[in-house]
Specification:
Blueprint (H helix, E strand, L loop, with lengths): L6 H4 L7 H23 L2 H17 L10 H19 L1 H4 L11 H5 L7 H19 L3 H11 L5 H8 L3 H23 L5
């Protein structure tokens, strides 16, 4: 374990030299990034959660944590912050956006410039393809997607309208999103060799 992480336990980080603060944060970031990224699967959200975890720790220092338990304690704080973040953003997780179907212009075009004309054309064609894939879905899948995206109904409202359970609605939404993702992977060879 890095001795600089022990500063989190013993003193007020806010009183440290800015360069030392930055070094401490980088070590904290490197320690927690893999586990938080595994939970959130989104780089910007992961960075937000790590920063929030770090701020939570320094707001409450000095701490009464044994040195041998420091790393697990830091990971527990990051895990709890991740769970709180997921709960706050639960509605957003249920939406299907083109980015959720692994749309990365560098993957599609094989080029590094996501702002090129070719990338813009690819993105537009992909959006049209996604709409076409949705039209090919079973009627119930199309219907739940329409209620979720266009009408922005909650699971409860959708279940009441369809006369089914909320769990049935969740399952239908999940299956419809997965079906669209599979079609994109197959026809656009996203993520393939």
């Amino acid at each position: 374990m890095s001795k600089s992480l022990l500063i989190l336990l013993t003193g007020d980080v806010r009183l440290l030299d800015p360069l030392l603060q930055e070094q401490l944060y980088k070590q904290f970031y490197q320690l927690l990034y893999p586990s938080v990224m595994y939970m959130l699967r989104d780089h910007p959200s992961t960075e937000d959660v790590i920063q929030e975890s770090f701020l939570n720790i320094i707001r409450k220092c000095p701490h009464e944590v044994e040195e041998c338990k420091l790393i697990p304690w830091l990971r527990t704080i990051a895990r709890n912050t991740s769970i709180s973040y997921l709960r706050k953003n639960q509605k957003k997780r249920d939406e299907l956006l083109p980015a959720d179907v692994f749309i990365d212009n560098t993957l599609l075009t094989g080029k590094g410039d996501p702002y090129s004309t070719e990338s813009e054309v690819e993105a537009k064609l992909l959006k049209e393809a996604i709409i076409r894939y949705i039209r090919q879905l079973k009627p119930i899948y199309r219907h739940v997607l329409q209620m979720r995206w266009l009408e922005q109904l909650s699971y409860k409202e959708m279940a009441a309208r369809l006369g089914v359970s909320e769990e049935h609605v969740r399952t239908a939404l999940h299956r419809s999103r997965e079906a669209v993702k599979r079609k994109v992977e197959q026809e656009w060879k996203v993520g393939g060799p």
